[in-house]
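User: For a benchmark we're assembling, each entry needs the component sequences followed by a predicted structure for the full assembly. Here are entry 17's components. Please fill in the structure.
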Amino acid sequence: MSTAAANLQLQDAVFVMIAIVTTGAALGVVFLRNIVHNALCLVLTFLGVAAVYFQLNAGFIGLVQILVYAGAISVLIIFAIMLVMDKEINQTNLPIPSLGRRIAGVYITALLVITLVLAIYFTAWPLATGAGAPFDAVGMLAELMLGDYVIAFEAAAVLLLVAVVGAVILAKGVEKQ
Amino acid sequence: MIGLSHYLIFSTVLFGIGIFGMLSRRNAIAVLMSVELMLNAVNVNFVAINRFVTSGQAAGQLFSIFVIVVAAAEVSVGLALIISIYRHRKSVDLNNFDLLKW
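Assistant: Structure for entry 17:
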């Protein structure tokens, strides 16, 4: 019993550490002035979110997160940064010059976060009983994807194809006749 | 004891950081990165609620996969747009992207 309790406390401590690292990296994404540092902080944030997925017994989503976000999307973003970098590197990610719009941003963010946190705190969630026994998530995902949600699955496939073709056309430019 | 509300508050903080970055930065790529932060926060919500409320089902995880798919498409098209605009205007500053303003 005491080992189970210690295990629970260890899990809580792990969550707190992951949350602190991820939130700090997310703040780095927004507040650092060098856009390469922003991108590297973004990778750290993606990895922290993947760790949260692993902690939530969603190992498959965590792996997809590492592959797609920390692998593919961050490489895309870093390539784009290298293609469009043209001035002093420490000045690449400045805040908006107008003070009024920055204050408006702080105001909207604070309003949203406070409202949502209060709403989360006062909602009685219909929690499932039991500790959430491990189950075959990948098999269930496969059955859902090719069963009930097959149309959404096909639409997502078409969306990816169209997005890749569109990205190539946009980045390459249409040849003049 | 860490429960559902802690995960939801964590994702709310992540979403708030993303929305602040979206409103206060002027580099187009930084704005895109902030949007990615917000999409990640939404995914954390999906997976946490799937784990704590509908335990034993996988619909929440399925929807987070769809969000990841749409995010990948959005990033590829968005970065292509930014590169294409950079070629014409030699800038990624959002204040210079005012072609459609009258």
